């Protein structure tokens, strides 16, 4: 816009936008082009739904886009059996004072960059784990070690984490690590579950956005990530105006070294990924098979291709040297025309599905992958055994129940039921898996019941649903909007994570609690408390910093303008009541909390130097900063550690430079 142009009336702009949507809708719907209609059912064998049954791309884009004045959203909540208060069996999620929860819940924090740990069933927030953000309570991003990790992990100050995954051994959570994606910057991070701390961040080469993220079951051979945005390969300025040459990648990262092992190039955008239980298949949903760069183009065709990655076949291709190396990473060609997809063991199978499917979740016994339709009111069930011999939808689609509008994600109780979130209908729908295999495709018969949620759910997760043996007692619906469910807190309202009692799938679903969540969780994962072994005190063998004893406390000049200050902390004093440095000195301050008592944490806050961090029992942390300005600075403890906490101080004296 030129400087002199007057800004346009927002209503006018919106009107224009809605007109565009209408035309997209008309194009996708094409009610009169009957010939193409026939073509659609031909192309999607067994899909006995008419075009009218599809949630049209334009409508969904409007509904999901949260445009001002969008009415599609306000229609949520459905009509049947609306329950906003607990009723029925009266399942209680109360955890009495002093009692513990039965499960850990690990919540992604979306664009807050952090993870949150929530107790189930109480829904109490137990802690937060900073991952892609910085955190001034713990000092994550302020201490040397964490600052270095963030710097080497790309140097960004934020990230957008969606999909937390627990490491597995034999298809069950082993309590060692949690892996999570960064959709914003194409990264994967690892959290150490002994200390509930992020211990590695990998900035994956060649990828802009990693959206889907999962571990390869059953033994966490890889952490797998889906590149969602198509970009030139390499994205170095070549082909910028040539979207045909952009590409999406699928990546495998080693869970121990966190190094990128290989990537696979595919057609279309990748979305979400989950793996079978035997270590062979990774199934990815995908959209934009048109490879367009705008919404009109992305919603032009009638179908997309779900991708089935044959992991051992890809490993074989890498071993045989069938790849091109880009930025040091072997990139295997998994596009439809690739020679590697021509033989009898293609590395990627392309399976046509209704347009723009959203999530993929593999059921507990590994029989089926459940692909939620998003724009189609159906869930497509892929038979993973049949996949070995075919990618023909006729042979690999085991069922396609019609579940409701805007299906996004599916979870399981381990007793034969699937639960799918319905974004547009604002409901959780429970349905019978085997009945869906038996039923005609597009049938509503497998549906057992629907529960209203408030409002517009994304992910839905039941207890340990991603293991081979789900626990099936509780389910959480992660709703994008809370609207009227909480006291208004300004225009940005919290999300609403709702706790639903499902029994073992034998009882009716019962909505039990609303739980506000700061923007914006996407997914969560639950582990029984016995599977997590969190340490209460640090073990000094587990970190690199040098443990400081009271005798070590002191100041050591390490160069003309650098000093190393070593200092212990204990109730209620620092190892040095004061220390002196020279103006301009680079100060390295190493602090050990010499206490061995659980939960006695000390803080080290240095006013006017932008430093604060926590030191837990037996932990050692280090910071480096420049003492720029002469003066006196009262270092104080930020954790209320004792009756003499206020008196717990040290004095940094910065002497003016001479002359
Ligand atoms: Cu559906 Cu990123 Cu898993 Cu959000 S994704 S909802
Ligand atoms: Cu140590 Cu307060």
Helix content range: 10-25%
Instruction: Choose one word for the global shape.
Output: globular
* Overall SS class: mainly beta
Number of strands: 40
Cα separation of the termini: 55 Å
How would you write the strand order of the largest sheet?
8-9-10-11-16-15
Strand content: 35-45%
The helix count comes to: 10
Q: CATH topology of the domain at 545-655, which one?
A: Immunoglobulin-like
Q: Any ligands, ions or cofactors bound here, and which?
A: sulfanyl-(tricuprio-$l^{4}-sulfanyl)copper, dinuclear copper ion
Main beta-sheet strand count, sense and barrel state:
6 strands, mixed
Overall pLDDT score: 90
Q: What would CATH call the class of the domain at 545-655?
A: Mainly Beta
Say which CATH homologous superfamily of the domain at 545-655 is assigned: Cupredoxins -  blue copper proteins
Using the 3D structure, state the CATH architecture of the domain at 545-655.
Answer: Sandwich
Radius of gyration: 27 Å
Low-pLDDT ranges:
23-87
